[in-house]
């Protein structure tokens, strides 16, 4: 049986739906059978949102000052925010941005020190945090810097498909100029390594999408497919990466061709995330590949319009927790096999989601 992991969960923007989906995720105590949760934020704010949610029995919490003091059968809360923290559900504020930054920093310090095993991040408001001096366009960029990673990769994960993006949080007008064969090849290398180590896929097949409509229509609508993307695919093949394409995105997703591959590399953010969320929004997970730690996040945002109204769906948060646990266990098994050792612990054949027995 895989060991029970300590899962660090950041509150995200306290004025969004982060607390609600965290509380709803652990409303069923059977979730505590598969992990020990540590929420980074405020017990006061946790209690505030708990009162807004109906039809949930008492949740046993344990307020602690450090993740070293976790209770195995309770929802642990690390109080890393001031006692006078104030929430305004539905409104991005300087205080909520600063609180999100503080919670994230505390969680990163703890995972670096080995007090938690994996990190799950609730949604943040990127613009508000940047306005308060965050200095990064999102979690991914911040974690790359904190862990000294030159290049990470955002992979959206569900039971149906995995979609990564070659360029992330940049303006659409900057995408063509940012794409190079070297960049795409680098992303494909990270993708292959992640699919093998993090997901247990021995010889992953990766589809690569084009940039222009109809893949440029032979150069009529753009030349990036012939001059940039195809050379990257060929170079990847020469390295033993099973990459295919480029494919025209509309037909690729419309005809369900993604099901023939283990993962898909899109050229820019919305090209990959729009079809992913259309197909798997309720249970989608945002995973950052290429980091020395395991970090996942729900695939939705702060959803201010739902905040404090008991309307948020916790399934993506739950899926993020399941995925973090499964990826961690895949890494342990893979690393031990690569080292020529038998796994120290017998891996549970079922996924964390199956082991939770939680009805979604």
Please name the defining characteristics of this protein.
360 residues; globular; alpha/beta; single chain; 12 helices
Describe this structure in words.
This protein has 360 residues and is α/β, with parallel strands linked by helices. The protein is 37% helix and 16% strand. The chain has twelve helices and twelve strands. It has helices at residues 18-25, 43-52, 94-112, 126-131, 139-146, 175-178, 181-197, 224-238, 249-254, 269-280, 315-338, 352-356, and strands at residues 5-10, 35-41, 61-64, 75-79, 118-121, 153-157, 162-165, 205-209, 242-247, 263-266, 285-289, 295-298. It has a twelve-stranded mixed sheet with strand order 3-4-2-1-5-12-11-6-7-10-8-9, with helices on both faces. α7 packs across α8. The mean pLDDT is 92.
**Radius of gyration, CA atoms, in whole angstroms:** 21 Å
Low-confidence stretches: none
Helix content bin: 25-40%
Shape: globular
The description of the largest β-sheet is:
12 strands, mixed
What is the succession of H and E elements? EHEHEEHEHHEEHHEHEHEHEEHH
Strand order of the largest sheet: 3-4-2-1-5-12-11-6-7-10-8-9
Strand content: 15-25%
* Annotation field: number of helices: 12
Quaternary structure annotation? single chain
What is the total tally of β strands? Answer: 12
* Beginning-to-end CA distance, first to last residue: 23 Å
Structural class by secondary-structure content: alpha/beta
Q: What is the typical, i.e. mean, pLDDT?
A: 92
């Amino acid at each position: 049986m895989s060991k029970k992991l300590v899962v660090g969960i950041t509150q995200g923007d306290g004025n969004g739906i982060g607390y609600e989906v965290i509380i709803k995720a652990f409303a069923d105590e059977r979730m505590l059978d598969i992990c020990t949760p540590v929420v980074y934020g405020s017990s006061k704010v946790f209690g505030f949102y708990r009162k807004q949610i109906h039809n949930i029995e008492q949740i046993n919490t344990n307020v602690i000052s450090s993740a070293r003091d976790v209770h195995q059968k309770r929802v642990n809360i690390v109080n890393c925010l001031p006692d006078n923290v104030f929430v305004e559900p539905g409104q991005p504020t300087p205080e909520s941005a600063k609180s999100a930054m503080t919670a994230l920093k505390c969680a990163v310090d703890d995972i670096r020190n080995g007090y938690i095993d994996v990190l799950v991040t609730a949604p943040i408001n990127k613009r508000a945090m940047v306005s308060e001096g965050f200095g990064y366009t999102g979690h991914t960029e911040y974690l790359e810097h904190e862990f000294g990673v030159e290049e990470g990769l955002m992979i959206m994960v569900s039971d149906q498909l995995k979609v990564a993006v070659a360029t992330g949080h940049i303006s659409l007008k900057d995408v063509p100029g940012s794409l190079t064969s070297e960049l795409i090849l680098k992303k494909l290398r990270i993708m292959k390594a992640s699919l093998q180590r993090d997901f247990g896929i021995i010889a992953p097949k990766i589809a690569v999408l084009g940039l222009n409509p109809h893949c440029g229509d032979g150069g009529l609508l753009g030349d990036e497919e012939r001059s940039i993307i195809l050379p990257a695919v060929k170079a990847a093949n020469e390295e033993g990466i099973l990459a295919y394409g480029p494919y025209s995105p509309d037909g690729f997703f419309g005809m369900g061709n993604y099901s023939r591959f283990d993962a898909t590399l899109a050229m820019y953010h919305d090209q990959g995330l729009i079809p992913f969320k259309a197909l798997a929004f309720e249970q989608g997970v945002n995973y950052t590949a290429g980091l020395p730690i395991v970090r996942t996040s729900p695939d939705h945002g702060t959803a201010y319009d739902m905040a404090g109204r008991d309307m948020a769906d916790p399934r993506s948060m739950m899926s993020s927790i399941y995925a973090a646990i499964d990826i961690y266990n895949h890494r342990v098994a893979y690393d031990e096999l690569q080292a020529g050792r038998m796994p120290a612990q017998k891996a549970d054949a079922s996924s964390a989601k199956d082991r939770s027995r939680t009805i979604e």
